[in-house]
Amino acid sequence: MMTKISYSGYRFPPEIIQQAIWLYVRFTLSFRDVEDLLAERGILVSYETVRRWVNHFGPMIAVDPRRRRSKPHTIWHLDEVYLKIDARLVYLWRAVDAEGEVLDVLVQTRRNKRAALKLMRKLLKKYGFVPDKLITDDLSSYGAAASDLGIAKRHERGRWRNNRAENSHQPTRRRERKMRSKAWDPRKDFSQRMQPHITPSTSNVISRQQEHTEPSGRRPCGRGVKSSPRRDCCSGFRRCCARFSIT
Question: The whole model's pTM is what?
Answer without folding.
Answer: 0.56
